[in-house]
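pinned: reference chain
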Amino acid sequence: MVDFYSLLLTSRVLREYRDNLVSYLDKVGIPKQNPPSWRPPNISMPPVVANFLNMSHHGDEAEMCLYNIPYGPLVQWTDFSKAVVPQAIALLRSSRVTQQQLLKGLYE
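pinned: its C-alpha cells
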C-alpha cells in the first residue's frame, strides 16, 4: 500500500476537466470538513504526468484512475476505425471524503 503519490496535472488538464469534476463534486457532495494540513513527504519522488482521469465512488470508498494519452499519435490519428488507447498509469483508492477534499482543493 502506498500512502503518498506524486502526480502532476497541468493547468490545461485542470481546465479541460473542470466542468466534469465540479459536476461530479456536486453529485458526491462538498466535504463537510477541511482536509488536514498537508505536508509533503520528505521523500524525493518524480511526479507522474496524467492527462486523462476518471473519478468514481461506491459508498464511502472512492477511486481515481489516471491515464496518459500521448499527444503525438493523437495529432497524427487519421484511421478512425482504430482507437488511440490511453496508457494506464495508476488506480488510486481513498475514502470518499479524501476524494471530495482533493476536488475542492483543486477548484477553490
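why pinned: Strands lie at 7-8, 48-49, 52-58, 61-68, 87-95. The first strand starts at residue 7 and ends at 8.
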